[in-house]
Amino acid sequence: MSDWVIDVQGLHKHFGDKHVVNDLSLQVGRGGIYGFLGPNGSGKTTSIRLMCGLLTPDAGSGSCLGFDIRSQAAEIKRNVGYMTQKFSYWDDLSIRENLDFVARMYQMPNRREVVDRALESLGLQSRAKQLTGSLSGGWKQRLALAACMLHQPKLLLLDEPTAGVDPTARRDFWEELHRLAAQGVSVLVSTHYMDEAERCHQLAYIAYGRLLTKGRASAIIAEQNLLTWQVAGQDLTGLSNQLRARAEIAQTVLFGEMLHVSGHDAAGVEACFAALGINHATPIATSLEDVFIYLMQRSQDNFGGER
Ligand SMILES: Nc1ncnc2c1ncn2[C@@H]1O[C@H](COP(=O)(O)OP(=O)(O)OP(=O)(O)O)[C@@H](O)[C@H]1O
């Protein structure tokens, strides 16, 4: 088998006249966490569904766990764990009953043992009898992860698994993902959270159905060649508008009481600061969030009208 758990080339998908996935090529290596990022509606869910054979592409080809995404969808489904965006377990069953139901669907012979193992590995034993409908978001998401791990898949596809979950539960969830990755499980995870993006081994960023960049976080940041300053002070919104009007400023982003100002030419940006009387700008490292905002704005200019 190749070293890629996902290897797709030139995928396209339309819904009506919307070009939702536009020429997607992606390779995901074994045993790492691959983050899939992009604004709402950029085509992440559709891409994941194409990659695991749940949807058929209009054009393009590829494999998932070595199985052809067009002709071997049933094999892919049996071998991947897919956590959908929407929590899809029964509120009026307990955690144990929900897991048992999933084990039945996979026709697992030793259900009791399998469910016990899943409960233990995700720390769910103490709540095994609790009705699922009464669980907090964090526990629900832990149940969903346990359910999609039940058949011990080698690849997990997680579609915004931590949306709406509090920071502590999100951190625990990510500890679990890293534990699984260390055991050789490959993970493709879509997210909107920057702290989560930073915890991935590799990233892809998609907007308007197109892959804009992929690679390690540090390489993605370096590739855009953005220099960034942090500016504190009064009326940051007004300052931001003034800065944006200048060609030397590539972008401004408000982060609470700070304004991040980015450009490609240090002398040009500093000249703008001087011209506007800004004498409290500190150079800082460009963050992944700065870069993603930059990429998204550029993609709006380039492709925004096409879909
Ligand atoms: N079955 C469908 N029929 C028609 N349009 C669809 C269908 N599924 C998705 N779309 C549209 O395709 C676009 C991409 O949707 P998709 O869910 O793949 O994006 P996403 O990046 O996962 O978004 P989000 O971050 O909001 O979950 C959206 O405009 C969506 O409305």
TrEMBL record:
Origin, by domain of life? Bacteria
What InterPro entries does the record tag this protein with? AAA+_ATPase, ABC_transporter-like_ATP-bd, ABC_transporter-like_CS, P-loop_NTPase
Q: In this record, what's one Pfam family? A: ABC_tran
- Keyword Membrane: yes or no? yes
Where does the ABC transporter domain start and stop, copy by copy?
6-233
MF terms (GO), sorted A to Z: ATP binding
- Which SUPFAM superfamilies does this entry report, sorted A to Z? P-loop containing nucleoside triphosphate hydrolases (SSF52540)
Q: Keywords of this protein's UniProt record, alphabetized?
A: ATP-binding, Cell membrane, Membrane, Nucleotide-binding
User: Can you say what this protein is called?
Assistant: ABC transporter ATP-binding protein
Query: What organism is this sequence from?
Result: Iodobacter violaceini
